[in-house]
Amino acid sequence: MRQHATKLAALLLSAASLAATSSCKTAQQPAAAKARAFSLPYEKFVLENGLEVVLHEDHSDPIVAFATVMHVGSNREKPGKTGFAHFFEHMSFNDSENAPVGANRKLIEEWGGQRNGSTWNDGTQYYEVVPKDAFDKIMWIDSDRLGYMIKTVTAEALAREIQVVKNEKRQNYDNVAYGFTNEVLRKNLYPADHPYNWTVIGSLPDLQAATLADVQEFYHQYYGPNNATLVISGDINIAETKAKVQRWFGEIKKGPEVKPLKPRPAGLTQTKSLYLEDNFARLPQLQVVFPSIQEYHRDTYALDVLSQLLAGNRTSPLYKVIVEEQKLAPNVGAYQYSSELAGEFILQVRANPNTSLQQVHSAIQEGLQRFETQGFSDTELQRIRAKIETDLYAGVESVLSKALQMGRDNEFAGDPAYISKAAQLAQAVTRDDVMRVYNQYLKGKPYVMTSVVPKGQQNLVVQGAQLATVYQEKVVAGVQNEDVGQGKEAEFEKTVTKNDRSEPPFLETPLFKVPAIWNASLANGLKVYGIDNREIPLVSFDVTIPGGHALDPLAKAGTAALMAQLLMQGTAQKTPAQLEEAIDLLGATISVNSANEEIRVQARCLARNFAPTLALVQEILLQPRWDAAEFARLKRSLATNLKGQEANPTAVASQNFLKLLYGPNHIFSTPSSGTLETTAGLTLDDLKAYYHANISPSGAAVHVVGAIDQNTVAAALRPLETGWAAKAVSVPKQTIPAQTLGGNVYFIDVPDAKQSVLYIGKLALAGSDPDLSKATFANAVLGSGASGRLTQLLRIQKGYTYGAGSSVQELKELAPFVVSTSVRANATGPSLQLIRQLLTDYGPTFSQADVDIAKSKILKGNTLVYESQGAKLNILRRISKFNKSPKFIEDDQQQLMQMGVSDFKATIGKYMQEKELVYVVVGDKATQLDEVKKFANGKVTLLDATGRPVQ
User: Fold this and answer.
1) How, if at all, do strands 343-350 and 527-532 pair?
2) Which terminus of the chain faces fewer neighbouring Cβ atoms within 10 Å, N or C?
3) In this prediction, what percent of the chain has a pLDDT beyond 70?
4) How many Å apart are CA 471 and CA 568, to the nearest integer?
5) Distance between CA atoms of 141 and 143, rounded to whole angstroms?
């Protein structure tokens, strides 16, 4: 279960509330009018027990999404019981009276669905999206979780989930750079009795102290249906759904009244400056936080606009001063973050190595002063406004995103369709509003400032900063009696209900049908693939050029990635700032990225702006600016980012795992971004040489998905067809060393790591191999999602990890089969033993029941995994890259249907043999190396973070 680090609205509403004011006119009509015309139709009713139900019909795909939003978050906790709302979310996924043990975590994925939950300051949400045949089953599981779970909670389940949540905290906060920053902020921004004084994840001692009585009290106090909203969105019939909601949810007992909390600003009276030395940070970071205003207040929209004006683009004053002029950091961020009771306006700079944060602080002040004196232009406002409509549609593209947005807005704003009102409020922001909120919340106001620096670099903190105190867990060896499991099932009398609460049957099974795909070939060799999809008035498209990292010189790895970034820094006709402005005024997004085997120019825009957006893509691709100043800035930024990765245990594990598999002479042994060594000597001429040798329409493809037809696309592509001349480009075949490392174990030390990161695998097969689909199918039961054996064993049964998984990767080159997880440090040895045994037994124990599970997960799951424009775009990419049939997914489904137990066993034996796998462990050597040696019978090779052997 995910715990919110940022407000949900930022994920779902996006710039519908992150942007703006009125709108610029386009060729057809004002965006403001379009935004006002947007609607989110729904039907709402309230059950007698107080549950508010919102229904939204969307018949574009045979899937249904459910979102249950509980009006209880960490702001309802008591001091000494922090983290409990999030912990209870975990407990809710365990068992319930009428569903089988583990059903909530395991069965939904086996039905082809997805499910999760999340908790933030003010609320908790649970959600599922499933093929429509599982509609009744989700009604059953969701209602049972809400109304009939508390009797099933056992001491053993409680103990296990405590370990899982502690693992989540270690993985996402304690074992990452800057993970304690939010804790320091909350303790110092809010008084001790304020509900936002502590983090949502809570403290380890508080989590460890949770009791059964705490769980029961929290449930009875806050989990009544009268404190919740249920949203059902998707391929439904309103009348039938209303009857089913009444049948499944209507008998749940009403809970006590939960009185609303009144808004309570932070009440900060003086500026506070604190610092922390961070074990994992390699870069100094400064954060300045001003108290602001609560969610849904009108001022939040002006503050969102202000954040964009201060730091949102190249012309913004903070960017100009910090990045361009003083060259202190690769970027600067400004954000408005609002919760139910209060808000925060955040300025954040992750600086270059060894940069004084005092200097960064002075630069922030200079930038704010410049904003006060120079103001901003109408064009800058216009740019922000232009993004509103695009982001409005993008924020409700899927049935799940609509369900989550409507659930939150109903529960916290009383209006399921508040998103359309939010767009209007953002459009209505004026220049006077922006300056008023700047003066009201920032100018001359107290703030909390945090200086987080690498260990031993206290000299970089802001002058006068006080040492912050945070709880740091001590890493120890051994399992320390923390081995937990499922335990016995609870004994209880089932709640008597009028309606039968046994598991309902499946409805009619829907199968995924590939949408109609059109294709064409242009005279210069460029291939074009498209899907005309009218669900939202947006178009997503890309130009994909073969090569990418695969064409990098080994000694200059990272060339393609740096060149891709430089292509976005202006064109021959436009400065970097002018290009950024042209994109923004269209309400579009354009990016250029390099991956292992391709460079991709990717864009998203309103359908009516496709032609001008494509024209900008062509200008970026064919008329590079080769700006020397921007090249120098990007090199500094790259060095900063690579330095920041040095103590990231997951990055260290992944990079060294690939280096071992591919060998030191293969380009894939280095990250596509390169290393500090390979990028240090890169010149602008290197990038130009790569571009002139490798950027060609030969073998390239354009992929287009959205509300646009083939003829319109063809007309818009004519300039690219005539203006981009073809030339031959070939990707050299690289030598892969003999795979003789099977069974080897490697250890990389990250001192004081709270968890150990494990990467296990081997090179398996290429994307063109006819066995690839079989290998993907065979992996489904092992490591695909929470229902996979890896997560069920390491998390559900043992409580060693927050999550574990495995995958079969798809490249033209031979690609790996990978098992990965992050386990608590003192469970490193036992986790390795369990994984080895699981992999050893996987093929021999694969049964007909496993075949059935794999088929259900994949066949039914296909109905929802290709819902979004991005997912449809990926279908087209796979067709063009691997020369697949337009019906390849349906063909794969037929192949899967014909596979039996022996086919799965043979595939597992060929590509997933445990004795052929390499083990990489990244963790605390002082406490864990001996445990790893026991696992490896003493044969462990020590490496440094760059993969060099350590004597």
Assistant:
1) unpaired
2) C
3) 95
4) 43
5) 6
CB 889 within 8 A of CB 157: no
Question: Strand 815-824 and strand 701-706: pairing?
Answer: unpaired
Helix (H) or strand (E) holding 777: helix 772-783
Query: What pairs with residue 64 in β-bridges?
Result: 130, 234
Strand 343-350 with 285-291, pairing: antiparallel
Query: b/e map of 292-317 (b: 16 or more CB within 10 Å)?
Result: bbbbbeebbbbbbbbbbbbbbbbbbb
Both tokens assigned to 860: 């039914």
Query: Residue 937 — left, alpha, or beta (φ > 0 → left; ψ -120 to 50 → alpha)?
Result: left
Higher pLDDT, 433 or 37: 433
Strands of the 527-532 sheet, one edge to the other: 518-521, 527-532, 701-706, 538-546, 598-606, 589-594
Please tell me the number of Cα atoms within 13 Å of 74 on its side-chain side.
29
Handedness of CA 308, 312, 314, 320 (dihedral sign): positive
Long-range contacts of the stretch 244-248 (C-beta < 8 A, 24+)? 244/135, 244/136, 244/139, 245/47, 245/53, 245/139, 246/47, 247/139, 247/499, 248/139, 248/140, 248/142, 248/143, 248/499
Q: pLDDT tens digits, residue range 598-625? A: 999 999 999 999 999 999 999 999 999 9
First CA to last CA across the chain, in angstroms? 41
3-state secondary structure of 134: helix
Three-state DSSP at 638 gives helix
**Crossing angle for the helix pair 888-898 and 772-783, to the nearest 10 degrees:** 70
Cα separations (Å) of 541 from 561, 709, 837?
20, 13, 45
146 within 8 A of 501, measured Cβ to Cβ:
no
Neighbours of 347 (CB within 10 A): 26
User: Under a CB-based contact definition with an 8 Å cutoff, are residues 222 and 122 in contact?
Assistant: no
- Tens-place pLDDT, residues 515-533: 999 999 999 999 999 999 9
Cα pseudo-dihedral 636, 640, 646, 651, rounded to 10: -90
Please list the alpha-helical segments (H only) found in 54-197. Answer: 84-92, 103-110, 135-147, 155-169, 181-189
Contacts of 727 by beta carbon, 8 Å cutoff, 6+ apart: 696, 698
- Alpha-helical (H) ranges within 586-707 are 610-622, 628-645, 649-662, 676-680, 684-694
Say if residues 58 and 237 touch (Cβ distance below 8 Å). no
Alpha helices in 480-534 (DSSP H): none
Can you give the pLDDT at residue 13? Answer: 28
- Are residues 583 and 387 in contact, defined by beta-carbon separation less than 8 angstroms? no
Write the burial class of residue 78 (CB in 10 Å: 0-12 exposed, 13-18 middle, 19+ buried): exposed
Distances (CA, A) of 465 to 286, 336, 470: 12, 24, 15
CA–CA distance, 825 with 478 (Å, rounded to integer): 9
Contact present, 685 and 320 (Cβ < 8 Å): no
Count Cα neighbours of 495 within 13 Å in the Cβ-side half-sphere: 18
* Residue 576 to residues 129, 382, 559, 618, 684, Cα–Cα distance (Å): 41, 18, 20, 16, 16
From CA 568, how far away is CA 314, in angstroms rounded? Answer: 12
Q: Is the separation of the CB atoms in 5 and 13 below 8 Å?
A: no
The pLDDT tens digits of the residues spanning 213-237 come to: 999 999 999 999 999 999 999 999 9
Q: Which one, of 389, 719, 711, 667, lies nearest residue 543 by Cα?
A: 719
Given a contact cutoff of 8 angstroms between Cβ atoms, the answer to whether 129 and 63 are in contact is: yes
pLDDT 10s digits, 825-845: 999 999 999 999 999 999 999
Stronger pLDDT, 343 or 161, i.e. the higher one: 343
- Residues with Cβ within 8 Å of 82's Cβ and at least 6 positions away in sequence, in order, are 74, 198, 199, 202, 203, 206
CA-nearest of 781, 785, 898 to 839 is: 781
Residue 169 and residue 1 in contact, taking contact as beta carbons nearer than 8 Å:
no
Cross-strand pairs, 346: 289, 335
